[in-house]
Amino acid sequence: MKEPNKISAGDITDPAVYFNRRTFIRTGIAAASAVATGLVYRRLNPVATGTVDTPLIQGLVTPAAVAAADATGFRVAETETSLRDITHYNNFYEFSTDKEGVASAAARFETNGWQVSVEGLVSKPRVFDLDDLLKISPPEERIYRMRCVEGWSMVVPWAGFSLSKLLDRVEPLGDAKFVAFETLLDPRRMPGQRSDVLKWPYVEGLRMDEAMHPLTLLASGLYGRALPPQDGAPLRLVIPWKYGFKGIKSIVKIKLEATQPRTTWSECAPNEYGFYANVNPQVDHPRWSQATEQRIGESGRRPTLMFNGYAAQVASLYNGMDLRANF
Amino acid sequence: MKENDVRFARFLLVVNGLVPLTVLGWDAWHHQLGANPVNFAILTTGMLALIFLMLTMLVTPLRKISGWNWIIFSRRTLGLFAFFYASLHFLIFFSFDRSFSLSGTLSEMVKRKYLMVGITGLLVMVPLAITSTNGMIKRLGGKRWRALHRLAYVAAVAGVLHYYMQVKADVRQPLVFAAVLAILLGYRMVVAAKAKD
After folding, report:
1. Are residues A18 and A118 part of one domain?
2. N or C, which end of chain B is more exposed by having fewer CB within 10 Å?
3. From the CA of B13, how many Å to the nearest CA of chain A?
4. Nearest-angstrom CA–CA distance, B82 and B156
């Protein structure tokens, strides 16, 4: 029988080498684990990439006389929010409830063959092909403030024309008192609709006089380009004196009605979101203040203006109305 | 585990716990925190505080179930990270959102229930952080120290509730935290009930 291997003194690793090797391995483990943690963090918090390459809008009308346009509220003289921020910070629950995640979730949204039905209490109801609808009036550039109910704001150079031009075309009947709007319902193309965070399809509404106001914009573009999917392609509403959620996106139906239509957010939380949703610094959201706002791209908060700074144009619509009760 | 190994494990924990802070700082420096950087930083540090609170509360059940007694070393480090990120969360709100205005912060706090709940969670963690040293454990005595540190549960409940209360409509993420918290607290209740029998 062979004697078990004896370890001679010379075979024992020098303690200095052993500890060096251990230090080396441990440093490696520490570094590798830190990198792994960093990668997990980055996966959960990706850095926004991607550009906007939607087609340029042909024949965009930009009023030369800004001073004259000022009284209309069509072009606010404030720094425009960057295209990147406008297209990578979106509330569009049909794609994602993560504002930074909407752009990528909506990237492949197809709008070919889009149609918009304009119906209800009108004498000439019609289903418009998008191209025909956009020919109703030349696209104008409108630079509006956009105030989100969450307490942040932007300045967006939209492209579009007043909703009134479309409504005139279908000839509203006398008993039409409200306009109801509806977003596309298609969970295959709008993945957010597969979960019932909100009741789908998204619906919104305006009083007839609000809908006919020249500031109320049917927008098909921004920054001189067709609307990117994340901002409501191919057609959305912009009502600059109201909180952003009134600006319904990816519209497929517009219906004129005699009674006040239901609206998605006021149905979701009736005590927090009303039908009117006029920007009002004096009426707080039950859970947060509306007195100030974070303008995207600025540091610090700025005071929120009554009717989002459009009081001169729209305050008369609400004469004698209790804005606290009709929030 | 040898003392030396435990020390290495703690070192690993500290290094990894600081990684989110480092990347957050890096992103802030390079202006890549997105369109609303202050909001992002507030949300992220809040999430980190909640995650570290949950991890802290996971140590004891995991230790009892697996028999890995040595992992107890991590509880204090994890708890201190939770406190650290919760403090940072508040400080970013106080500085960038409220512009260091004490009255602005207080008046907002009084009006908003979710802010009251959140600050409660942070404040109860203060005595826990102060008494986290070995010396303090000795001075208080194990029994009293353990009783005091049950405040961690209050902090966790307050933290999750604070998150839930300020979400607009999509409550899925806060509900995940609530579910994890329910399991962690439920485990303790079951253990306590069994001990009584």
Report:
1. no
2. C
3. 9
4. 10
Judgement on whether residues A236 and A160 belong to the same structural domain of the protein: yes
pLDDT in tens, B14-48: 999 999 999 999 999 999 999 999 999 999 999 99
For A288, the domain range is 59-318
For A326, residues 6+ apart whose C-beta sits below 8 A from its C-beta are A274, A275, A276, A318
B66 touches chain A (CB under 8 A): no
For residue A232, which amino acid is it?
G
Burial grade of A60 (CB within 10 A; 0-12, 13-18, 19 or more): middle
Tokens 């619509």 -> residue: A317
Domain count, chain A: 2
In tens, the pLDDT along B85-116 reads 999 999 999 998 888 889 888 988 888 899 99
B35, A146 contact by CB (below 8 A): no
The verdict on residue A2 lying in a domain is no
Best of A83, A97, A153, A298 to disrupt the B interface (most B CBs within 10 Å) is: A97
The answer to pTM > 0.90 is no
Please tell me the distance from the alpha carbon of residue A323 to that of residue B11, in angstroms, as a whole number: 58
Nearest to A307 by CA among A316, A299, A294: A316
Rounded-to-integer distance, Cα B197 and Cα A306, Å: 64
Q: What is each CA distance from A59 to A31, A134, A137, A210, A258, in whole angstroms? A: 57, 12, 11, 27, 37
